[in-house]
Amino acid sequence: MHGGRFRRRLTSLAAAVAAVAAAAGCAPPSVTQPGVLDSIIDAALKIGTVPTAYQELVVAAGKVCPGVSAPLIAAQIEQESGWNPDAKSPVGAQGLSQFMPGTWAELGRDANGNGINSPFDPADAINAQARYDCQLLAQVNAYLKSGRIAGDPTDLMLAAYNAGIGRVLTAGGISGQLPVETQQYISRIRKLMTKYADVTLPTGGTGNVAAVKAATRWMGTPYVWGGGDLEQPTGLGRDGRGPGWDCSSLTRHAIWIASGRTVQIPRVSSAQATAGRPVEPKLAAMAPGDIIAFSIHGGGIDHVGIYAGNGTMIHAPRTGKNVEPVDLTDAYWSKLPWTVRRFL
Protein backbone atom coordinates (compact mmCIF):
# COMPACT_ATOMS: atom_id res chain seq x y z
CA MET A 1 0.00 0.00 0.00
CA HIS A 2 2.91 2.34 0.77
CA GLY A 3 5.22 1.00 -1.95
CA GLY A 4 5.00 4.11 -4.17
CA ARG A 5 5.94 6.49 -1.40
CA PHE A 6 8.73 4.16 -0.30
CA ARG A 7 10.18 4.03 -3.81
CA ARG A 8 10.04 7.82 -4.03
CA ARG A 9 11.92 8.12 -0.75
CA LEU A 10 14.54 5.72 -2.05
CA THR A 11 14.85 7.72 -5.26
CA SER A 12 15.37 10.93 -3.32
CA LEU A 13 17.88 9.23 -1.06
CA ALA A 14 19.75 7.80 -4.03
CA ALA A 15 19.98 11.25 -5.61
CA ALA A 16 21.40 12.73 -2.42
CA VAL A 17 23.87 9.89 -2.02
CA ALA A 18 24.94 10.22 -5.65
CA ALA A 19 25.80 13.88 -5.10
CA VAL A 20 28.03 13.03 -2.15
CA ALA A 21 29.64 10.10 -3.93
CA ALA A 22 30.34 12.08 -7.08
CA ALA A 23 32.30 14.52 -4.96
CA ALA A 24 33.97 11.69 -3.05
CA GLY A 25 35.51 10.42 -6.25
CA CYS A 26 35.19 6.77 -5.28
CA ALA A 27 34.44 5.61 -8.78
CA PRO A 28 34.06 1.84 -8.54
CA PRO A 29 36.23 -0.19 -10.95
CA SER A 30 34.25 -1.20 -14.02
CA VAL A 31 36.01 -4.53 -14.37
CA THR A 32 36.27 -7.51 -12.08
CA GLN A 33 39.44 -7.21 -10.07
CA PRO A 34 41.53 -10.39 -9.98
CA GLY A 35 43.73 -11.34 -7.10
CA VAL A 36 41.25 -10.61 -4.33
CA LEU A 37 42.56 -12.06 -1.08
CA ASP A 38 39.19 -12.68 0.48
CA SER A 39 40.92 -13.75 3.66
CA ILE A 40 37.77 -13.85 5.71
CA ILE A 41 36.02 -16.17 3.26
CA ASP A 42 38.97 -18.52 2.86
CA ALA A 43 40.55 -18.21 6.32
CA ALA A 44 41.19 -21.07 8.67
CA LEU A 45 39.28 -21.28 11.92
CA LYS A 46 40.74 -19.31 14.82
CA ILE A 47 41.36 -21.95 17.45
CA GLY A 48 39.51 -21.38 20.71
CA THR A 49 36.60 -19.43 19.22
CA VAL A 50 34.32 -22.45 18.75
CA PRO A 51 33.10 -24.67 21.62
CA THR A 52 35.64 -27.47 22.01
CA ALA A 53 33.09 -30.21 21.37
CA TYR A 54 32.39 -28.80 17.89
CA GLN A 55 35.81 -27.56 16.79
CA GLU A 56 36.86 -30.61 14.74
CA LEU A 57 33.40 -30.84 13.18
CA VAL A 58 33.51 -27.20 12.07
CA VAL A 59 37.05 -27.53 10.69
CA ALA A 60 35.99 -30.60 8.68
CA ALA A 61 32.88 -28.79 7.43
CA GLY A 62 35.08 -26.00 6.13
CA LYS A 63 36.81 -28.45 3.80
CA VAL A 64 33.73 -29.79 2.00
CA CYS A 65 34.01 -27.32 -0.90
CA PRO A 66 35.88 -24.14 -1.86
CA GLY A 67 34.05 -20.98 -0.84
CA VAL A 68 32.49 -22.43 2.31
CA SER A 69 35.00 -21.99 5.11
CA ALA A 70 35.05 -23.00 8.74
CA PRO A 71 34.60 -19.36 9.91
CA LEU A 72 31.49 -19.09 7.73
CA ILE A 73 30.07 -22.31 9.16
CA ALA A 74 30.78 -21.12 12.70
CA ALA A 75 29.22 -17.71 12.07
CA GLN A 76 26.04 -19.31 10.75
CA ILE A 77 25.75 -21.61 13.75
CA GLU A 78 26.13 -18.72 16.19
CA GLN A 79 23.46 -16.77 14.36
CA GLU A 80 21.11 -19.71 13.84
CA SER A 81 21.18 -21.34 17.28
CA GLY A 82 23.78 -19.72 19.51
CA TRP A 83 25.57 -23.12 19.59
CA ASN A 84 22.55 -24.80 21.20
CA PRO A 85 22.20 -28.32 19.70
CA ASP A 86 18.66 -28.62 21.07
CA ALA A 87 17.43 -25.32 19.64
CA LYS A 88 13.91 -25.18 18.17
CA SER A 89 12.50 -22.12 16.45
CA PRO A 90 8.84 -21.03 16.56
CA VAL A 91 8.48 -22.04 12.89
CA GLY A 92 9.93 -25.51 13.43
CA ALA A 93 13.63 -25.19 12.56
CA GLN A 94 15.75 -27.62 14.57
CA GLY A 95 19.23 -28.10 15.98
CA LEU A 96 22.52 -26.24 15.71
CA SER A 97 22.01 -25.35 12.07
CA GLN A 98 18.24 -24.83 12.26
CA PHE A 99 17.05 -27.19 9.54
CA MET A 100 13.38 -27.35 8.68
CA PRO A 101 12.06 -30.95 8.66
CA GLY A 102 11.50 -30.91 4.90
CA THR A 103 15.04 -29.76 4.15
CA TRP A 104 16.47 -32.27 6.61
CA ALA A 105 14.59 -35.08 4.88
CA GLU A 106 16.58 -34.28 1.74
CA LEU A 107 19.99 -33.53 3.28
CA GLY A 108 20.16 -35.40 6.57
CA ARG A 109 22.56 -38.29 6.96
CA ASP A 110 24.32 -40.13 9.78
CA ALA A 111 27.63 -38.30 9.39
CA ASN A 112 29.39 -39.83 12.41
CA GLY A 113 28.10 -43.39 12.02
CA ASN A 114 26.44 -43.55 15.43
CA GLY A 115 23.22 -44.96 14.02
CA ILE A 116 21.34 -41.66 14.43
CA ASN A 117 20.31 -39.35 11.62
CA SER A 118 19.08 -36.21 13.34
CA PRO A 119 19.33 -32.41 13.06
CA PHE A 120 19.85 -32.49 16.85
CA ASP A 121 23.04 -34.54 16.41
CA PRO A 122 25.81 -31.90 16.06
CA ALA A 123 27.94 -34.05 13.74
CA ASP A 124 25.01 -34.67 11.43
CA ALA A 125 23.82 -31.06 11.52
CA ILE A 126 27.19 -29.42 10.85
CA ASN A 127 27.99 -31.82 8.02
CA ALA A 128 24.58 -31.24 6.43
CA GLN A 129 24.99 -27.48 6.82
CA ALA A 130 28.28 -27.55 4.92
CA ARG A 131 26.83 -29.68 2.13
CA TYR A 132 23.78 -27.43 1.90
CA ASP A 133 25.96 -24.31 1.74
CA CYS A 134 28.02 -25.91 -1.03
CA GLN A 135 24.88 -26.91 -2.92
CA LEU A 136 23.50 -23.36 -2.68
CA LEU A 137 26.84 -21.84 -3.66
CA ALA A 138 26.95 -24.01 -6.78
CA GLN A 139 23.41 -22.93 -7.64
CA VAL A 140 24.04 -19.20 -7.24
CA ASN A 141 27.28 -19.44 -9.23
CA ALA A 142 25.36 -21.07 -12.07
CA TYR A 143 22.70 -18.35 -11.92
CA LEU A 144 25.40 -15.67 -11.84
CA LYS A 145 26.99 -17.15 -14.93
CA SER A 146 23.65 -17.18 -16.75
CA GLY A 147 22.95 -13.57 -15.76
CA ARG A 148 19.75 -14.37 -13.88
CA ILE A 149 21.05 -12.84 -10.64
CA ALA A 150 23.72 -10.38 -9.56
CA GLY A 151 25.77 -9.94 -6.40
CA ASP A 152 28.56 -11.45 -4.37
CA PRO A 153 28.47 -15.29 -4.42
CA THR A 154 28.86 -15.62 -0.65
CA ASP A 155 26.11 -13.07 0.01
CA LEU A 156 23.86 -14.84 -2.48
CA MET A 157 24.50 -18.19 -0.85
CA LEU A 158 23.70 -16.76 2.59
CA ALA A 159 20.54 -15.17 1.23
CA ALA A 160 19.47 -18.52 -0.22
CA TYR A 161 20.19 -20.27 3.09
CA ASN A 162 18.04 -17.75 4.94
CA ALA A 163 15.22 -17.07 2.50
CA GLY A 164 15.41 -19.86 -0.07
CA ILE A 165 16.88 -19.90 -3.56
CA GLY A 166 13.49 -19.02 -5.03
CA ARG A 167 13.40 -15.68 -3.20
CA VAL A 168 16.92 -14.89 -4.42
CA LEU A 169 15.88 -15.59 -8.02
CA THR A 170 12.75 -13.47 -7.70
CA ALA A 171 14.81 -10.59 -6.29
CA GLY A 172 17.35 -10.89 -9.09
CA GLY A 173 20.10 -11.46 -6.55
CA ILE A 174 21.25 -9.08 -3.84
CA SER A 175 18.76 -6.23 -3.97
CA GLY A 176 16.27 -4.29 -1.93
CA GLN A 177 13.64 -6.84 -2.95
CA LEU A 178 15.11 -9.35 -0.52
CA PRO A 179 13.41 -9.43 2.90
CA VAL A 180 14.95 -7.04 5.41
CA GLU A 181 15.55 -10.03 7.68
CA THR A 182 17.64 -11.66 4.96
CA GLN A 183 19.68 -8.52 4.32
CA GLN A 184 20.36 -8.26 8.04
CA TYR A 185 21.26 -11.96 8.16
CA ILE A 186 23.93 -11.49 5.48
CA SER A 187 25.48 -8.52 7.28
CA ARG A 188 25.41 -10.34 10.60
CA ILE A 189 27.14 -13.44 9.21
CA ARG A 190 29.79 -11.33 7.49
CA LYS A 191 30.60 -9.56 10.75
CA LEU A 192 30.58 -12.76 12.80
CA MET A 193 33.03 -14.36 10.38
CA THR A 194 35.70 -11.90 11.48
CA LYS A 195 35.34 -13.30 15.00
CA TYR A 196 36.08 -16.85 13.87
CA ALA A 197 38.66 -16.23 11.12
CA ASP A 198 42.35 -16.68 11.81
CA VAL A 199 43.55 -13.58 9.98
CA THR A 200 46.91 -12.22 11.09
CA LEU A 201 47.16 -8.47 10.98
CA PRO A 202 50.49 -7.00 9.85
CA THR A 203 53.12 -5.94 12.35
CA GLY A 204 56.25 -3.86 12.01
CA GLY A 205 56.87 -0.85 9.82
CA THR A 206 56.59 2.78 10.86
CA GLY A 207 52.93 3.23 10.05
CA ASN A 208 50.03 3.04 12.42
CA VAL A 209 48.68 -0.50 12.59
CA ALA A 210 45.72 0.85 14.54
CA ALA A 211 44.37 2.27 11.27
CA VAL A 212 44.60 -1.16 9.70
CA LYS A 213 42.71 -2.67 12.61
CA ALA A 214 40.04 0.02 12.32
CA ALA A 215 39.52 -0.85 8.64
CA THR A 216 39.79 -4.61 9.17
CA ARG A 217 36.97 -4.48 11.69
CA TRP A 218 34.59 -3.68 8.83
CA MET A 219 35.63 -6.41 6.39
CA GLY A 220 32.47 -7.95 4.98
CA THR A 221 30.48 -4.70 5.32
CA PRO A 222 28.70 -3.65 2.11
CA TYR A 223 30.01 -1.00 -0.25
CA VAL A 224 27.61 1.95 -0.27
CA TRP A 225 28.27 4.74 -2.74
CA GLY A 226 28.46 7.92 -0.65
CA GLY A 227 28.00 5.99 2.61
CA GLY A 228 29.95 6.18 5.84
CA ASP A 229 30.78 8.97 8.27
CA LEU A 230 33.63 9.44 10.73
CA GLU A 231 32.24 6.93 13.20
CA GLN A 232 30.23 4.28 11.37
CA PRO A 233 28.87 2.93 8.08
CA THR A 234 25.73 4.65 6.82
CA GLY A 235 23.37 4.79 3.86
CA LEU A 236 21.70 2.44 1.44
CA GLY A 237 23.54 1.11 -1.61
CA ARG A 238 22.35 0.87 -5.20
CA ASP A 239 22.00 -2.85 -4.60
CA GLY A 240 19.68 -2.28 -1.64
CA ARG A 241 22.27 -3.19 0.98
CA GLY A 242 23.51 -1.07 3.84
CA PRO A 243 24.67 0.57 5.93
CA GLY A 244 28.14 0.62 4.43
CA TRP A 245 31.24 2.50 3.31
CA ASP A 246 32.64 3.86 0.09
CA CYS A 247 36.38 3.92 -0.51
CA SER A 248 37.24 7.33 0.95
CA SER A 249 34.87 7.20 3.89
CA LEU A 250 36.51 3.95 5.03
CA THR A 251 40.03 5.39 4.87
CA ARG A 252 38.86 8.59 6.58
CA HIS A 253 37.22 6.56 9.36
CA ALA A 254 40.33 4.40 9.84
CA ILE A 255 42.62 7.41 10.29
CA TRP A 256 40.09 9.12 12.54
CA ILE A 257 39.82 6.12 14.87
CA ALA A 258 43.56 5.33 14.84
CA SER A 259 44.41 8.93 15.77
CA GLY A 260 42.18 8.82 18.81
CA ARG A 261 39.68 10.99 16.95
CA THR A 262 42.13 13.86 16.53
CA VAL A 263 43.06 13.64 12.82
CA GLN A 264 40.26 14.32 10.35
CA ILE A 265 41.43 13.85 6.77
CA PRO A 266 39.52 15.12 3.70
CA ARG A 267 36.33 13.25 2.73
CA VAL A 268 37.02 12.88 -0.99
CA SER A 269 39.63 10.58 -2.51
CA SER A 270 41.20 13.24 -4.72
CA ALA A 271 41.77 15.48 -1.69
CA GLN A 272 43.15 12.59 0.36
CA ALA A 273 45.71 12.07 -2.41
CA THR A 274 47.16 15.55 -1.87
CA ALA A 275 46.92 15.78 1.93
CA GLY A 276 49.25 14.33 4.54
CA ARG A 277 52.89 13.53 3.82
CA PRO A 278 53.99 12.01 0.51
CA VAL A 279 55.49 8.52 0.53
CA GLU A 280 57.44 6.90 -2.27
CA PRO A 281 54.94 4.62 -4.08
CA LYS A 282 56.89 1.43 -3.48
CA LEU A 283 56.04 -1.38 -1.09
CA ALA A 284 59.46 -1.14 0.54
CA ALA A 285 58.80 2.49 1.49
CA MET A 286 55.20 2.04 2.57
CA ALA A 287 53.96 1.23 6.07
CA PRO A 288 50.67 -0.06 7.47
CA GLY A 289 48.21 2.80 7.76
CA ASP A 290 49.33 4.63 4.62
CA ILE A 291 46.60 5.62 2.18
CA ILE A 292 47.03 4.59 -1.45
CA ALA A 293 45.22 6.53 -4.18
CA PHE A 294 44.57 5.38 -7.76
CA SER A 295 43.28 6.70 -11.04
CA ILE A 296 41.41 3.60 -12.14
CA HIS A 297 39.54 5.17 -15.03
CA GLY A 298 42.29 7.54 -16.10
CA GLY A 299 40.48 10.78 -15.33
CA GLY A 300 42.09 11.69 -12.02
CA ILE A 301 42.11 10.09 -8.58
CA ASP A 302 38.94 8.06 -8.14
CA HIS A 303 39.79 5.33 -5.63
CA VAL A 304 41.65 4.93 -2.33
CA GLY A 305 42.48 2.16 0.10
CA ILE A 306 44.51 1.67 3.24
CA TYR A 307 47.79 -0.23 3.16
CA ALA A 308 47.75 -3.19 5.54
CA GLY A 309 51.34 -4.35 5.11
CA ASN A 310 52.71 -7.43 3.39
CA GLY A 311 51.61 -6.17 -0.03
CA THR A 312 47.94 -6.04 0.97
CA MET A 313 45.41 -3.20 0.82
CA ILE A 314 42.00 -3.04 2.50
CA HIS A 315 39.38 -1.12 0.56
CA ALA A 316 35.69 -0.69 -0.19
CA PRO A 317 35.64 -1.65 -3.88
CA ARG A 318 32.29 -1.13 -5.62
CA THR A 319 28.55 -1.72 -5.50
CA GLY A 320 27.77 -5.40 -4.97
CA LYS A 321 31.03 -6.02 -3.12
CA ASN A 322 32.10 -5.72 0.51
CA VAL A 323 35.07 -4.25 2.32
CA GLU A 324 37.88 -6.66 1.53
CA PRO A 325 41.66 -7.07 1.21
CA VAL A 326 43.41 -7.19 -2.18
CA ASP A 327 46.89 -8.17 -3.29
CA LEU A 328 48.73 -5.07 -4.52
CA THR A 329 51.31 -7.24 -6.29
CA ASP A 330 48.61 -8.58 -8.59
CA ALA A 331 48.86 -7.36 -12.19
CA TYR A 332 45.61 -5.38 -11.92
CA TRP A 333 46.87 -3.12 -9.14
CA SER A 334 50.58 -3.09 -9.90
CA LYS A 335 49.99 -1.68 -13.41
CA LEU A 336 48.22 1.40 -12.01
CA PRO A 337 50.12 4.52 -10.90
CA TRP A 338 50.00 4.91 -7.12
CA THR A 339 49.91 8.01 -4.96
CA VAL A 340 50.73 7.23 -1.32
CA ARG A 341 50.13 9.55 1.63
CA ARG A 342 50.86 9.21 5.34
CA PHE A 343 48.73 10.86 8.01
CA LEU A 344 49.92 9.29 11.29
UniProtKB/TrEMBL annotation:
CDD domains: Slt35-like (cd13399)
Record key words, sorted: Hydrolase, Protease, Signal, Thiol protease
InterPro entries for the chain: Lysozyme-like_dom_sf (IPR023346), NLP_P60_dom (IPR000064), Papain-like_cys_pep_sf (IPR038765), Peptidase_C40 (IPR051202), Transglycosylase_SLT_dom_1 (IPR008258)
Signal peptide: 1-23
Database matches in Gene3D superfamilies: 1.10.530.10, endopeptidase domain like (from Nostoc punctiforme)
Source taxon at top rank: Bacteria
GO BP annotation list: proteolysis
Domain NlpC/P60 stretches: 205-344
A molecular function GO annotation: cysteine-type peptidase activity
The family this protein is said to belong to: Belongs to the peptidase C40 family.
UniProt-recorded name of the protein: NlpC/P60 domain-containing protein
Species: Kribbella capetownensis
